[in-house]
Write a structure and sequence with these properties.
One of its GO terms (biological process) is 2-oxoglutarate metabolic process. This is Dihydrolipoyl dehydrogenase. Its EC number is 1.8.1.4. This protein has 3 domains: 233 residues, FAD/NAD(P)-binding domain, CATH 3.50.50; 123 residues, FAD/NAD(P)-binding domain (3-Layer(bba) Sandwich); 105 residues, Enolase-like, domain 1 (2-Layer Sandwich). The chain is built from 14 helices and 22 strands. The strands form 5 sheets. Strands 1, 2, 3, 4, 5, 6 and 17 form a 7-stranded mixed sheet that branches. Helix 7 links the parallel strand 10 and strand 11. Helix 1 packs parallel to helix 9, helix 3 packs antiparallel against helix 4 and helix 3 runs parallel beside helix 6. The longest helix is centred in the N-terminal third of the chain and has 25 residues. The radius of gyration is 24 Å and the shape is globular. The chain starts with a strand and ends in a 7-residue tail after the last helix.
Length: 483
């Protein structure tokens, strides 16, 4: 054993590197182990989120939205653009630069906080007693090519994240059939783009390439669109994405075959009515969700318990069935969201240090960075109805908001759901401009057990988009002012 630590964090994504930094801040000798390599075959911290997920996708979404504004929306402001064109390699280069800056930034943060950083695949071996230090240490093998070393740690935080779910019928080669990494690295706009999966990744990537000129068809197996979102929000989103953006969205499909040729990909499927259909595209994105990344972790070596979905089983405090081993983020229950992973990492670090770490899984915000954006926190109307909860609802459209009008982004609304008896907020749902920022107010309100009247009584700046949240809260008691 080469070194020993108080805490070993396996994985340097949003859950892992944040946990490692917080451990170090609390005086714990910490190592962060990660195996990710960039296309140049160099270690690259930040996990899926920074390398091929959250950050690069938002960079391309912003670029594509700027292009669409110049092409379709600037004229309403009296701004004329002639000879508009798009340089896809330059756009991808900008995205890559942002990624490099952030992954390098994570390395600097670890160094600044005196967190040891080791590259390679970490495998749990066993737990041994360190008589000299008078404590039990977990032995962890770190393999980087031909180099193998072993470290010991009293506590282990597993933050290995998730990987794209594979379709046997559509093996990803990132030439014709793409996963999220391939979709972020295209060097030209495909004329015809197919997307299997109508979730967050499929919608965001489909939106990017549709704005840049591709004909985009989305095939979703579920009978409805965005079924995890509030039904009314999902209905509004489908209308806007279909009519204004031009996405072709098919739900309830069953794929029967996928053939990848030299120049195209053919998808054979049956539609919601059972009729056979055929889709020919130049590129096909497979975005059918993600699965926990536990391969090579050594769960079988130490008896680490996994559930039926291969997630690591944890309790409410992210403790596994093994002493001093914790797990956070995509590899455990709950939503696969970067911010959820980070806060779990902080909570675990604080518990290891003897503090009262805490995370409320009922107040995790969800965001889809399409245009318009979609965000929510808490229960949906369909969930409240299914549970038999009596509630009241208030809603207000962005169309009636002065700031939204000035922006020229008037689609969508905010909806507030509150308990019929206590008025306590049960959920807030949004679709519209910059709702990824507005949702924070809703999360704060729910964390402090606010009522809809609490938001209604708070002064909101004018003119601002946040006034839509204010008016929706007023509408719960049928006293909205501006509609």
């Amino acid at each position: 054993m080469s070194q020993s630590f108080d805490v070993a964090v396996i994985g340097a994504g949003p859950g892992g590197y944040v946990a490692a930094i917080r451990c170090a801040q609390l005086g714990l000798k910490t190592v962060c182990i990660d195996e990710w390599k960039n296309p140049q075959d160099k270690p690259s911290l930040g996990g899926t989120c920074l390398n091929v997920g959250c950050i690069p996708s938002k960079a391309l979404l912003e670029s594509s939205e700027n292009y669409e504004r110049a092409a379709r929306k600037f004229s309403a402001h009296g701004i004329k653009v002639e000879g508009l064109s798009i340089d896809i390699p330059a756009m991808i280069g900008r995205k890559d630069k942002i990624v490099a800056n952030f992954t390098g930034g994570v390395a600097m943060l670890l160094k600044k906080n005196k967190v040891a950083s080791m590259h390679g695949r970490a495998t749990l071996l066993k737990r041994d007693r360190d008589n000299e230090a008078d404590r039990e240490l977990w032995q962890i093998e770190i393999r980087n090519g031909d180099k193998v070393e072993t470290v010991g740690a009293e506590h282990v935080i597993i933050a290995t994240g998730s990987v794209p779910r594979q379709l046997d019928a559509a093996p990803v080669d990132n030439e014709r059939i793409l996963d999220n990494a391939g979709a972020l690295a295209l060097t030209e706009t495909p004329k015809r783009l197919g997307v299997i999966g109508g979730g967050v990744i499929g919608l965001e990537m489909g939106s990017v390439w549709r704005r840049l000129g591709a004909e985009v068809t989305i095939l979703e197996a579920l009978p409805g669109f965005l079924m995890s979102a509030d039904e009314q929000v999902a209905k509004e989103a489908r209308k806007i994405f279909s009519r204004e953006l031009g996405l072709v969205i098919n739900t309830g499909v069953k794929i029967s075959g996928i053939t990848s040729g030299q120049d195209n990909v053919t998808v054979e499927y049956s539609d919601v009515d059972g009729n056979p259909q055929k889709l020919e595209v130049d590129k096909l994105i497979v975005a059918v969700g993600r699965v926990p990344n536990t391969t090579g972790l050594g769960a079988e070596n130490v008896g680490l318990k996994l559930d039926e979905r291969e997630r690591i089983e944890v309790d409410v405090h992210c403790r596994t069935n093994l002493p001093n081993i914790y797990a956070v983020g995509d590899v455990v229950r709950g939503p696969m969201l970067a911010h959820k992973a980070s806060e779990e990492g902080v909570a675990v670090a604080e518990m290891i240090a003897g503090q009262a770490g805490h995370l409320n899984l009922d107040a995790i915000p969800w965001v889809i960075y399409t245009s318009p954006e979609i965000a929510w926190v808490g229960k949906t109307e369909q969930e409240l109805k299914a549970a038999g909860v009596e509630y009241k609802a208030g809603q207000f459209p962005f169309m009636a908001n002065g700031r939204a009008r000035a922006l020229g982004e008037t689609g969508g609304f905010v909806k507030v759901l509150a308990d019929a008896d206590t008025d306590r907020i049960l959920g807030i749902h949004m679709i519209g401009p910059y709702v990824s920022e507005l949702i924070a107010e809703a999360v704060v309100a729910m964390e402090f057990a606010a009522s809809s009247e609490d938001i209604a009584r708070i002064v909101h700046a004018h003119p601002s988009l946040s006034e839509v949240v204010h008016e929706a809260a007023l509408a719960v008691d049928k006293r909205a002012i501006h509609i």
